[in-house]
Design a protein that fits this description.
This protein is of the alpha/beta class and about 450 residues long. Helix content is about 35%, strand content about 20%. The protein contains 14 helices and 17 strands. The strands form 3 sheets. It has an 8-stranded parallel beta sheet. It has a 7-stranded mixed beta sheet with strand order 2-1-5-14-15-16-17, covered by helices on one side. A two-stranded antiparallel ribbon has the order 3-4. Helix 1 links the parallel strand 6 and strand 7 (about 80-90). The longest helix has 18 residues, at about 205-225. The mean pLDDT is about 95. The structure holds N-(aminocarbonyl)-beta-alanine and zinc ion (2 copies). One zinc ion binds near residues 51 and 53.
Length: about 450
């Protein structure tokens, strides 16, 4: 017997796929040309990755190790069939050039279906019209940074940009950390002789996140628009989001597996051992991890994104080897392949969340928030047959040699996880099975999305 996960319930029912779509759920189906035996397994929709950096430069100008090919391949091995990645505009480059280039790379390289978010780093007179143009081609979400010198926007520029996004029907994701507090603290630490990874965490303090999130929420409230706070790492920032929601602000929240399972003390030690764990926001302590899990259990976290930002040890992480100082390290952790296995193992297997919560966090909610629903995710008649057969009893120990990204380390090395994808179907085609794949660059399809009227951008 196996279990099929529908949006609101788990049933024991066969799925029939014809061509690229789901043709029937339950009932008596004629024998299929090909049948997959899911006995004892969970049949669930393919994951939707809402947050990944592929073929992109870091805040300091360092390229990610993964492009659309390796990033989407790794995603597929982890049970994700739709990947959302960024098209990052750099100052002095137009949004149309930025988007054209990313669309072309993704078209040639992506091995699973994909959609793009824009990153915007400038605000000028034409920006609102540029955003409307980008939305027309089907890129209807964007990220804005409140910190990082090469990316950040603040003050009236930020407000005007948000207003332009709202008019264009774009869902806005915000990297919400208070740049003033971070810069001030970082200078103090450097002047005091600090060069270590923990100094990075001290400058990207819990308070800096809370202040950044509070500001972003206040702007959304003033502009009466939705806002999606990404990679949230602290219980205090989460309280800000809850308070804003209770005032009627359409705030949604993402957290990432690394904030749920990795401990801040990994940043304590020589830079060679700690740089692999550096991200912004940084890893936090047990209190914040417990607060995030509680929030997940209470339904206060909307999406789990990997924030896959892969910088290798031999490239972005240790540009000057053992002499590398914390402010020279490319921030970000890889995690696109392990997003589902980590949440399943730590969440479902350990009894913190149900399988329905799991699917909602890794697939349904990201699809709804970013306008991919119901084409993606719902195992409903007529939706794309992106299906994962999940083996909830499979136990594996994570090692970099068995992952499919182009990284030279994984922050989860040695962790044993229970619950892994066994078979992955992309639009009805079996693309991963038993450790092998038939994924091909260019095999992924761009999912064109519709602009979202501001009133509909709600939880
Ligand atoms: O440290 C991180 N998260 N790097 C990736 C870029 C971002 O801010 O999401
Ligand atoms: Zn960010
Ligand atoms: Zn990110």
């Amino acid at each position: 017997m196996f279990s099929t996960l529908l949006e609101d319930r788990v049933v024991d029912a066969d799925l029939a796929v014809v061509g690229e779509r789901i043709d029937a759920i339950g009932g008596r189906n004629p024998p299929g040309k090909r049948e997959i035996d899911a006995d004892g397994k969970l049949v669930m929709p393919g994951g939707v990755e809402p947050h990944s950096h592929l073929a992109q430069l870091s805040g300091g100008g360092i390229p990610t190790s993964d492009d659309f090919e390796s990033g989407t391949r790794a995603a597929a091995y982890g049970g994700t069939t739709t990947v959302m990645a960024f098209s990052a505009q750099h100052r002095g480059t137009s949004t149309s050039e930025t988007v054209t280039e990313a669309m072309e790379r993704a078209r040639l390289e992506a091995t699973v279906d994909y959609a793009l978010h824009l990153i915007v780093t400038e605000q000028h007179d034409r920006t609102a019209a540029d955003l409307a143009e980008v939305a027309r081609i089907g890129i209807t979400s964007m990220k804005v940074f409140m910190t990082y010198d090469r990316l950040k926007l603040a003050g009236a520029d930020l407000v005007n940009l948000l207003e332009g996004a709202r008019s264009a029907g774009m869902t806005v994701m915000v990297h919400a950390e208070h740049d003033g507090l971070i810069t001030w603290k970082r200078r103090q630490l450097i002047e005091g002789g600090r060069r270590d990874a923990m100094a990075h965490a001290e400058s990207h303090s819990r308070l800096a996140e809370r202040a950044g999130v509070a500001e972003a929420l206040a702007l959304a409230e003033a502009l009466e628009m939705g806002i999606h706070v990404v990679h949230l790492s602290t219980g205090d920032a989460l309280k800000e989001a809850e308070a804003a929601r209770s005032r009627g602000v359409r705030a949604t929240v993402e957290t990432c597996p690394h904030y749920l399972v990795l401990e801040e003390s990994l940043l304590d030690g020589p830079i060679r051992e700690t740089a692999p764990f550096m991200s912004s926001p940084p890893l936090r302590g047990a209190r914040d991890r417990a607060a995030l899990w509680r929030a997940i259990e209470a339904g206060q976290v909307d999406t789990i994104g990997s924030d896959h930002a892969p910088y290798r040890l031999d490239a972005g992480k240790l540009p000057r080897g053992d002499k590398t100082e914390f402010h020279e390290v490319a921030n970000g952790l890889p995690g696109i392949e392990l997003r589902l296995p980590l949440l399943y193992s730590e969440g479902v297997t350990k009894g913190r969340i149900t399988v329905s919560d799991f699917v909602r966090l890794v697939a349904t909610n990201p699809a709804k928030l970013f306008g991919l629903y119901p084409r993606k995710v719902t195992p409903a008649v007529g939706s794309d047959a992106d299906i994962v057969v999940w083996d909830d009893a499979e136990r594996r120990t994570v090692t970099i040699d068995e992952l499919h990204d182009r990284m030279d380390y994984t922050p989860y090395e040695g962790m044993t996880l229970t619950g892994w994808p066994e078979t992955v179907l992309l639009r009805g085609r079996m693309v991963v099975h038993g450790g092998h794949d038939v994924l091909r660059p260019g095999g992924g399809r761009f999912i064109k999305r519709k602009p979202q009227p501001a009133k509909e951008m709600h939880r």
